Amino acid sequence: MTDQIKYVLGEKDIPRTWYNLAADLPGGAPMLHPGTGAEITVDDLLGIMPETLARQELSREAEIEIPEPVRQIYAQFRPAPLFRARRLERALGTPARIYYKYEGGSPAGSHKPNTAIAQAYYNKQAGVTRLATETGAGQWGSSLALAGALFEMDVSVFMVKVSYHQKPYRRMLMATYGARCVPSPSTETAAGRAILAEDPDCPGSLGIATSEALEVAGGNSDVNYAGGSVLNHVLLHQSVIGQEAIAQFALADDYPDIVIGATGGGSNFGGLAFPFLGAQLRGGSTVRVIAAEPSSCPTMTQGTLSYDFGDTAGLTPLIKMHTLGHSFVPPPVHAGGLRYHGMAPLVSEALDRDLIEATAVKQLSCFASGITFARAEGIVPAPESTHAIDVAIREALRCRDEGVARTILFGLSGHGHFDLGAYEAYLSGSLRDEEFDPAALESSLAKLPGFVSV
Amino acid sequence: MTDQIKYVLGEKDIPRTWYNLAADLPGGAPMLHPGTGAEITVDDLLGIMPETLARQELSREAEIEIPEPVRQIYAQFRPAPLFRARRLERALGTPARIYYKYEGGSPAGSHKPNTAIAQAYYNKQAGVTRLATETGAGQWGSSLALAGALFEMDVSVFMVKVSYHQKPYRRMLMATYGARCVPSPSTETAAGRAILAEDPDCPGSLGIATSEALEVAGGNSDVNYAGGSVLNHVLLHQSVIGQEAIAQFALADDYPDIVIGATGGGSNFGGLAFPFLGAQLRGGSTVRVIAAEPSSCPTMTQGTLSYDFGDTAGLTPLIKMHTLGHSFVPPPVHAGGLRYHGMAPLVSEALDRDLIEATAVKQLSCFASGITFARAEGIVPAPESTHAIDVAIREALRCRDEGVARTILFGLSGHGHFDLGAYEAYLSGSLRDEEFDPAALESSLAKLPGFVSV
């Protein structure tokens, strides 16, 4: 084949270790106990996760071994393909070489099983048989439901209410795997009831759903919490994405000048970009790394870098991150997986050190780019992924205008087969850009916890 | 990895030719002109398809070259993986080795792009820019919509009305690719209007939708018809499935004793099984080949082998096939892709020569098997595919009971991400087995055309 479009690795090429960017960013701010202000320890986390995961959460080691049973399940859909988007390049008339790392081939249709399987495995090893979690668009919830089915565990998912209604097939997918899915805010938790008392029509948010899941996990000794993003160990597990991509670029005899990922909590972005950043920090080629966030929930471009809670009710440790304030409720855009008030501490740290840049993109532009991509490459992207596509297309067009042939890599975190209602709304003209409300930000930032950054 | 679960081939291993079973079944009954009874010629077909496809339709050559631009598009999702279902084997406690050839990784989520891309390519080469077709569950329609997007062609899809309402996301997927999707029977054609006049609540069928598409293609010189199943050239294009599987079994150092495919019109079944039958007819190992059809539309197990029309209105040539009669309207089961009154002539011929066997399976049993599979293997199967799974599980349990370790291969033709409404109905207990009505069969068979089998 003259014009190769797919770079494939074998089962034996699945990474044997996860890569931890924390090892290469010494001096990062630790998580703090909200009551005492003391640094969080492994013991503090044991109420909601097994010791293995607690140790990974706080680890500063660069490489952590992937258990063989996890690699064995990964083997069904990993290594994930790296595609050269030749048809999109032609459609754009750009000299840029555009690549995308596609995670939609997993049984749940996104990158989320990379950590769901690992978390279910470690919990099962520790004798835990029940897991609770939150989900936005449902990619994370259905991935944990999948992992629960594979390890025969009970899974309860609090799904952000607006997404629960926008994406009914995600809820049905969870049920097919045998999991329980509850629209959040719900009446099942004190956190949910408090929100509903204040605003019965609250569309929900990832912060609220996280409070509900944490409350259930914290209050039941046989239930653990499983997080879909933000946390260090989640980004750690996702590092298989970028590690594979680096090996695939060697096959392609190329290397990215620009790496782009969509960012909600940071797990797909971190999974893709961190191994490239790690290589750079250890003397490898410099890459321009761009985090693409929704303009309706502009954590990095409009938020502040501060200690804040990871959830709305304030049940998590304090985490230093770019945040809109834990009480911020983002407008109901279709990219439900990006509707989170904060940003993973490792992504926040990388941004603070100017290792990456952030840009905010609008919903309508993202759907237009998603359709351009779908009609050129065939794959209909998840609304979250269209944020990366939108920036990639912008950079490819800049290459065209400047007459420069840069190599662009973006993360295609999942397919949009569950999100076609959003595409229909876009095509019918009924979708609009959700405006970001500076007053809501001001009010939310006023409620930040009083701890000063250390 | 000790227990390999995936057998992967490289881009260069995509077959270079399609395999045509007709070459190894000499003396098969030709298609006949309904007016004259004469054998159909290439010229007769040119009103609805380009010469290249018409020649493939009537070809008796064993191997037909795959154009390089088609292979280039195949490369995005082919070779498709062959999986060893080790987790399902453990769940069933069977000594059988179960494999499945998974076609759900294509951008449209099924095997249908294998022929959609080829047909769009040949039409585009011939200067045709508009295509019309029918679709049941929507897998074919969305695949042709995908191919239309890639080749910049206008695509109109008549979608069986019951599936149009059961599977709204399929319709939205077609729209995202830029195609037009119309519920059938529609008022846009004489065939549709005639059906609606008799039964305004008609749920539609593949036979009716085919009539509508053929009418549009036949009546417009710039529109061609593209068929999703049944026709010889469609099964030809699908032969990449079985050819790849044979190469993958060599990697696994194994070979199937039993090959199982779900059958509606026969394209997934033929694509998987024919290369194995061809190898057997040329002196290779004997395989037991089982066609799994729905008991609500039992073309092979209850129908008759006769010349009949491929569509309800009688616009096609006469085709010798197992049929329930072209006026038979199957009950509205969720496996919309299997709701077809006839069977591909090559599959019918193979059944008549005892090269394959047929079995009918019930909807509820299929969904139960589909859920067993999903919870063990992670992939939620399309309702059509669950028919093959149901038979595979039955054979695997027979291996357990007999203490025999047979090798079983089945075709997993697509994922069920668009069909979760059906799973929800099953899980909630509201789904039922649709009974086959012998009186409807009798009445339909009475309307068979008068031609006697030659």
From TrEMBL, chains A, B:
Gene3D superfamilies linked: 3.40.50.1100
Keyword Amino-acid biosynthesis among UniProt keywords: yes
A Pfam family reported for this protein in Swiss-Prot or TrEMBL: PALP
Single Gene Ontology MF annotation: L-serine hydro-lyase (adding indole, L-tryptophan-forming) activity
SUPFAM superfamilies, alphabetized: Tryptophan synthase beta subunit-like PLP-dependent enzymes
EC number from the UniProt entry: 4.2.1.20
Pathway where it operates: Amino-acid biosynthesis; L-tryptophan biosynthesis; L-tryptophan from chorismate: step 5/5
Catalytic activity: (1S,2R)-1-C-(indol-3-yl)glycerol 3-phosphate + L-serine = D-glyceraldehyde 3-phosphate + L-tryptophan + H2O
Cofactor entry: pyridoxal 5'-phosphate
Protein family: Belongs to the TrpB family.
Description of how the protein assembles with itself and partners: Tetramer of two alpha and two beta chains.
NCBIfam families the UniProt entry points to: PRK12391.1 (NF009057), trpB_rel (TIGR01415)
Protein name: tryptophan synthase
Originating organism: Actinocrispum wychmicini
